[in-house]
Amino acid sequence: MEEIVGFITSTLSYLFITVAGIFVIVNPITSAFVFMSLLPNASEKRKKEIALRSVKIATTVFFVFALLGGVIFQLFGITLAAFRIAGGIILFGIAMGMIRKKSISSEESEETTHPEGQIADDVSVIPLAIPFMSGPGSIAVVMILMSEAPSIYHTVLVFMAIAMTTVACYFAMVYSKVIVRYIGETGKQIVTKVFGLILAVISVQFVINGIVSVLSDYGFIDKAVM
């Protein structure tokens, strides 16, 4: 009975970490603002088509890197500990940018918006799917979470977290007009800063896990204690 309770507790805990880690780095709220700026005059049907296509592409990218992360490590001779530390440092930098900047993607979105304010061409691949949803930071989070999954059940949770986040992005883009109207620029900045703080904590934990793994590999820490 205690083993079952422990398993459920660890599973729910890992699910929370995976959802939080992927959700805050992808940030569906930001996707809504970017989507709105890229397609100011698009019809509802057009918006749904582009949102669905971008979500499919981003989800595919996440799944590919989640499945092939171990192969990539072996191909380049990268250890999981090194990737955890490097990924954690990169994510911490992104988190600090989210906390400090007044607006993360407003300048980027202005550069990609049609100069006449008309409907852009097909923006589902670039910049919506890549890099706004499945960028380097979010891909790194997915790969690190996959590397830390202790069992097949935890691996499934990572895929569930990816699906939940990309589905949230779809609805955020489809209802971007409503989100932009009610949240506004100030609301977006507040949400972004809160997400940045959460991401900073998660990134520090990634670095700690990597350092502990290195110390364990070199015999400074007993693995049985971990």
Topology:
Layout: H1 2-26, H2 28-38, H3 44-76, H4 80-100, H5 106-112, H6 124-133, H7 136-148, H8 152-174, H9 176-217
Helix pairs in contact: 1-7, 1-8, 1-9, 2-5, 2-8, 2-9, 3-6, 3-7, 3-8, 4-7, 4-9
How would you summarize what this structure contains?
The protein is mainly alpha-helical and 226 residues long. It contains nine helices and no strands.
Keywords:
226 residues; mainly alpha
Q: Portion of residues in helices?
A: over 70%
**Category by helix and strand content:** mainly alpha
Order of helices and strands, N to C?
HHHHHHHHH
**Main sheet attributes: strand count, strand direction, barrel closure:** none
Mean pLDDT across every amino acid position: 82
Could you explain the architecture of this structure?
With 226 residues, the protein is mainly alpha-helical. It has one domain. 82% of the residues lie in helices and 0% in strands. The protein has 9 helices and no strands. α2 packs parallel to α5.
